[in-house]
């Protein structure tokens, strides 16, 4: 499976036609280069170890952990220069997009695989279009590194008054079957005889309506209005969540949903492998939400009280989450004081434990009830000096804590905006993390 399948979180208001602005064109030389790379990926995917790793993920997600599992994503690829490993040689935008995905898969496997699973197939997306909610983000961005996609954002307020909420529209979702077929055929031409090409629908969504409101209102404005204009904020989140739900109905009615019971990311965590859902191969399209994972997050609520978190976030998010078979909650927001609130979420299976959480407090309270999706602090890579010993001690403490309280744990190193242009830091951390997780397993 190519890396974009496992790393991408689909948003319900965005177009999902990967090639909507990239014509599916490549030269004969491009095709030769891509097929050579595809063979390398096929060789990796054929290794028996992937079945063993997949079982470890299933055990964690079913709360019967053999050992913690480790996944690395959201990587600063601009800093990963490592000889010729990531140099693009194809000529067309379409070919370069595929080449980049293949190269990244090989790079990860060769240098920091952790508990990565590479499936022996290439999945092509359906060309799905939505009309959106009637608003586009209006912002000013400020890069700290022109080569990095991570930038600072200043959002310009578009929802300030009651009348502004009328701007939010219910999206219309459509499927361009002919474009989907063209994409499938283009991939088959490249990968035929090397990797099977399988057309797949949308394997779940990133559902974070408060993130959307922040981009439309501004972070400071959202937090102030929770106290100063609560009725307005209730109406804003109600309007947005209702639009989300009506869009979900359309995705389901059109047969556009697919299983995420595979090496697809769920929420802000990692893979969705589990024996508690139907197998992914049976639900490449026409999946219903009650057969797959759902997720939600309200990152702006980091410093909001449990009562306010329930009132303004979870009470609305439940309407989305109750549609799904299993659910994941959280991202960066601390949750240790809000576990009682989260207990009201139907079929909650996994919770995010970011660096701003009290890990011991959460593990002690959770035990085997939920899976811990632990996020080490990526700031360890950003300093002028690299202290692997300290980073390893911190991770070893987290693993010991999870084991002490009987928790199942995935370790997700993410949000890696920089490694100080020293990729060996991430590679060394990956090796150390695997050694720690395998100890006494």
What is the structural class? Answer: alpha/beta
Give the helices and strands as they follow along the chain.
Answer: HHHEHEEEEEHEHHHEHEHEHEHEH
Q: Give a count of the beta strands, DSSP E runs of length 2 or more.
A: 12
- Major beta sheet, specifics? 6 strands, parallel
Distance between the termini: 28 Å
Q: Count of DSSP helices?
A: 13
* Estimated helix fraction: 25-40%
* Low-pLDDT segments, ≥5 res: 1-5
Average pLDDT, to the nearest integer?
93
Taken from the alpha-carbon principal axes, the silhouette is: globular
Q: In percent terms, what proportion of residues is strand? A: 5-15%
- Our Rg estimate from Cα atoms comes to 22 Å
Strands side by side in the biggest sheet: 1-12-11-10-9-8
């Amino acid at each position: 499976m190519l890396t974009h399948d496992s790393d991408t979180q689909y948003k319900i208001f965005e177009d999902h036609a990967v090639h909507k602005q990239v014509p599916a064109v490549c030269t004969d030389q491009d095709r030769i280069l891509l097929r050579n790379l595809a063979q390398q990926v096929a060789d990796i995917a054929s290794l028996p170890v992937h079945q063993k790793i997949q079982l470890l993920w299933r055990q964690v997600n079913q709360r019967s952990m053999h050992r913690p599992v480790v996944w690395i994503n959201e990587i600063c690829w601009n800093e990963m220069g490592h000889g010729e490993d990531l140099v693009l040689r194809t000529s067309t935008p379409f070919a370069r997009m595929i080449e980049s995905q293949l190269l990244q898969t090989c790079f990860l496997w060769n240098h920091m695989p952790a508990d990565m699973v590479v499936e022996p197939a290439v999945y092509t997306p359906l060309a799905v279009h939505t009309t959106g909610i009637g608003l586009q983000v209006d912002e000013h961005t400020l890069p700290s590194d022109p080569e990095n996609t991570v930038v600072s954002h200043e959002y310009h307020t578009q929802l300030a008054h009651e009348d502004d909420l009328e701007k939010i529209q219910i999206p219309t979702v459509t499927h361009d079957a002919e474009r989907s077929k063209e994409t499938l055929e283009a991939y088959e031409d490249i990968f035929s005889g090397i990797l099977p090409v399988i057309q797949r629908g949308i394997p779940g969504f990133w559902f974070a309506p408060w993130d959307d409101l922040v981009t439309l209102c501004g972070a400071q404005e959202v937090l102030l209005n929770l106290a100063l204009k609560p009725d307005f904020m209730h109406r804003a989140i109600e309007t947005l969540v209702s639009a989300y739900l009506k869009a979900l109905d359309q995705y389901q009615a059109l047969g556009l949903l697919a299983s995420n019971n595979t090496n697809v990311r769920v929420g802000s965590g990692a893979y969705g492998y589990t024996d508690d859902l139907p197998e992914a191969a049976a639900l490449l399209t026409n999946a219903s939400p009650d057969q797959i994972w759902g997720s939600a997050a309200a990152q702006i609520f980091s410093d909001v009280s449990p009562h306010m978190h329930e009132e303004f976030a979870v009470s609305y998010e439940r309407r989305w989450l109750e549609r799904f078979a299993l659910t994941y909650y959280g991202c960066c927001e601390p949750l240790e004081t809000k576990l009682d609130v989260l207990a009201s979420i139907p079929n909650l299976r996994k919770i995010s434990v970011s660096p701003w959480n009290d890990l011991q407090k959460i593990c002690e309270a959770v035990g085997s009830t939920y899976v811990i999706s632990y996020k080490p602090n990526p700031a360890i890579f950003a300093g002028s000096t690299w202290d692997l010993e300290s980073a390893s001690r911190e991770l070893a403490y987290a693993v010991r804590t999870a084991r002490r309280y009987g928790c199942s744990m995935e370790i997700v190193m993410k949000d890696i905006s920089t490694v100080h242009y020293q990729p060996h830091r991430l590679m060394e951390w990956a090796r150390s993390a695997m050694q720690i997780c395998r100890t006494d397993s």
